[in-house]
Amino acid sequence: MIKFIDHPLIKDKLTRMRKSETQSTKFRDNLTELTQLMAYEVTRDFEVNTIEIDTPICKTKGYKLKNNITIIPILRAGLGMSDGLKSLIPTASVGHIGIYRDEETLEAKTYYCKMPVNIKESITIVLDPMLATGSSAIAAIDILKKDYKPLKIIFLCLVASPEGVKKLSEKHPDIDIYGASLDEKLDGNGYIVPGLGDAGDRIFGTK
To answer: Would you place residue 207 in the very low, low, confident or very high pLDDT band (cuts 50, 70, 90)?
Structure first.
């Protein structure tokens, strides 16, 4: 499934993030809030188990997420999304995959990977603000499928290029892809147009 979430608050916050004059602090705040808004749609079909609880008045039926959840930000930009998701799913575990894009070949290079022990029993949500060429997302999902074999993999981004969506969905047709905006195209340098610029630099205030 490929779904771009259409919601007025998401459109408003994404517009704030796109503006070149938006400073790092506001960029991060909007990224956290956007991730939280998108999380409601991403988790809509998660299964729950019925449990019995005590309220101050009586016993009643309650619910608990059936499966473990693991949040996996792709370093470094994905870190800007992880806190927002973790605040809504405090029981979630967190793994990390470090990937950078070779500026000449645009191919993904992996330099770090660390996963929680319960990864095989988890629904995993891979986080990266940008789905540009698709190489980083594909590399991360390749690692998860080959080495960890989680129950399910979801990819969550903010903005995506048509080229990146096509490449990722063709390579991994079983992966659900969620985003806030399908942008126009990639430019000659592999950046999304109109995009956000370099999301990592804007999150962390680096150049």
So the answer is: low
With 0-12 CB in 10 A as exposed, 13-18 as middle and 19+ as buried, what is 45?
exposed
Alpha-carbon torsion (98, 99, 100, 102), positive or negative = positive
Dist CA 177 CA 154 (whole Å): 6
pTM reported for the whole predicted model: 0.92
Q: At a CB cut-off of 8 Å and minimum separation 6, what does 198 contact? A: 191
Q: Give me the amino acid identity at 11.
A: K
Beta-bridge mates of residue 193: 185
132 within 8 A of 154, measured Cβ to Cβ = no
- Domains contained in the chain, CATH given: 2-47+59-204 (3.40.50.2020)
Confidence label for 129 from pLDDT (cuts 50, 70 and 90): very high
Average pLDDT over residues 42-63: 96
CB 148 within 8 A of CB 170: no
Residue 186 clears pLDDT 80, i.e. is over it? yes
CA distance 31 to 13: 8
First vs last C-alpha separation in the chain: 35
